[in-house]
Amino acid sequence: MASRYDRAITVFSPDGHLFQVEYAQEAVKKGSTAVGIRGANIVILGVEKKSVAKLQDERTVRKICALDDHVCMAFAALTIFTGLTADARVVINRARVECQSHKLTVEDPVTVEYITRFIATLKQKYTQSNGRRPFGISALIVGFDDDGVPRLYQTDPSGTYHAWKANAIGRSAKTVREFLEKNYTEDAIASDNEAIKLAIKALLEVVQSGGKNIEIAVIRRNQALKMFSAKEVELYVTEIEKEKEEAEKKKSKKSV
Amino acid sequence: GDPPDGVSPCLPGWSWPPPPGFRLAHGTTTLAFRFRHGVIAAADTRSSCGSYVACLASCKVIPVHQHLLGTTSGTSADCATWYRVLQRELRLRELREGQLPSVASAAKLLSAMMSRYRGLDLCVATALCGWDRSGPTLFYVYSDGTRLQGDIFSVGSGSPYAYGVLDRGYHYDMTNQEAYALARCAVAHATHRDAYSGGSVDLFHVRESGWEHVSRSDACVLYVELSSSAP
């Protein structure tokens, strides 16, 4: 049944599916994991870095991109064969142009919701035109608005978008999301450092080789985007491991 | 074409053809200034067409939305049309974004829309007076695309007379009553000396809670009151 209704994007199946859009969502599930967390005074994006080939220059693989001074975006996409990282590049470029056009016509910088809506509308257009396929990417968009409120939004290939307190996309999104549902508390995000540790802990659940395969970016209120260096990430990872050991020691002491 | 008979080419507005480089100062006096408690907009009410008074009681202050007014000068038709277009734009953006654009945005939109018609004889000289997230804000927009932020603007043929009074009496920390008195005084003096301004003096105040029409007083009566009370 599916094979008769999935050739063209603009064809509904009898039971109401747009198969091409669903296949695009499958492509997203194969991409590397990304997590976004909205703290009280900080927003954090973390992505799983794929280990690069020996001869590849690591610095050219960038999965977290600034859209404007106060907004940045991480995307999950199938990175290996079908080249959907290219899809992300196109979307990011259009979003960057829109951020500047908005400033030109209206003087004010975009709100996070506005640029998310723009990206979602763009994705939706590609689910309703002939001759095109949907973008095979989901995106997490974080930033601060003029009023100082931190925001996190997620978009998916169908063009829907929602606001989240914390979310994950990509390969092990389900595991990470379950971890976040258990561990995202008001205390956990009360301080910037605790929120950053929460993001790293969430990624460590699913990333194989620990700190060196994690990329973190944060935006603090009224400050520019900051990408963490590998060393800074390692510092946090060591702190997390120390805390884990101490917690286990306490537990074993109690049980004795 | 030929100038109408018996008309002197020396009066502004009736020189024919207009000497190159001479800008017709539009027959009106409008002013706006911002101070601690909001933005004041005031204007005369005489619509003139050369030396013919077309309307004694026109309203030169146009509301755009609850927190934004525009004083108008230039071609009445152009002002009315472009303000309706601006109202539509701002309303659409309010629906999309969930909040009204700032006064700076409104001024940018208006000047960008009009600058597309530059060179086609549009004539709109307006001061946008509003209260937005950054407090009382005032912008001057002209149909060639000029857009200036400022504390005091006066537009029209009576503006030099109004500026004299305004510059003398303005300070940011005025009370409401002082501001009203200053605005009325400035427009009244302008109507006294400028032939193309007169009728009544309209006074509007944009506060944090929105705009309100404070008063409309006859210009001659007002001028007489001012001269009898002033030392």
Automatic annotation (TrEMBL), chain A:
Superkingdom of origin: Eukaryota
SMART domains named among the record's database cross-references: Proteasome_A_N
Biological process, per Gene Ontology: meiotic cell cycle; proteasomal protein catabolic process; regulation of meiosis I; ubiquitin-dependent protein catabolic process
Keyword Cytoplasm: yes
Chief localisation class: cytoplasm
Classification via Gene3D superfamilies: Glutamine Phosphoribosylpyrophosphate, subunit 1, domain 1 (3.60.20.10)
PROSITE patterns from the UniProt entry: PROTEASOME_ALPHA_1 (PS00388), PROTEASOME_ALPHA_2 (PS51475)
Oligomeric form and interacting partners: The 26S proteasome consists of a 20S proteasome core and two 19S regulatory subunits.
PANTHER family found in the cross-reference section: PROTEASOME SUBUNIT ALPHA/BETA
Family, as annotated: Belongs to the peptidase T1A family.
Protein name per UniProt: Proteasome subunit alpha type
Organism the protein comes from: Callithrix jacchus (White-tufted-ear marmoset)
Record lineage: Eukaryota, Metazoa, Chordata, Craniata, Vertebrata
UniProtKB/TrEMBL annotation, chain B:
Location relative to the cell: Cytoplasm; Nucleus
Pfam families attached to this UniProt entry: Proteasome
Positions of the catalytic residues: 28
Subunit details: Component of the proteasome complex. The 26S proteasome consists of a 20S proteasome core and two 19S regulatory subunits. The 20S proteasome core is composed of 28 subunits that are arranged in four stacked rings, resulting in a barrel-shaped structure. The two end rings are each formed by seven alpha subunits, and the two central rings are each formed by seven beta subunits. The catalytic chamber with the active sites is on the inside of the barrel. Incorporated instead of PSMB5 and PSMB8.
Catalysed conversion reaction: Cleavage of peptide bonds with very broad specificity
Sequence similarity: Belongs to the peptidase T1B family.
General function of this protein: Component of the proteasome, a multicatalytic proteinase complex which is characterized by its ability to cleave peptides with Arg, Phe, Tyr, Leu, and Glu adjacent to the leaving group at neutral or slightly basic pH. The proteasome has an ATP-dependent proteolytic activity.
Organism expressing this protein natively: Callithrix jacchus
GO-annotated biological processes: CD8-positive, alpha-beta T cell differentiation; proteolysis involved in protein catabolic process; T cell differentiation in thymus
Keyword vocabulary terms for this entry: Cytoplasm, Hydrolase, Nucleus, Protease, Proteasome, Threonine protease, Zymogen
Lineage top rank: taxon: Eukaryota
Gene3D superfamilies: Glutamine Phosphoribosylpyrophosphate, subunit 1, domain 1 (3.60.20.10)
Broad class of where this protein is predominantly found: cytoplasm
GO CC list: cytoplasm; nucleus; proteasome core complex
GO MF term set: threonine-type endopeptidase activity
Protein name: Proteasome subunit beta
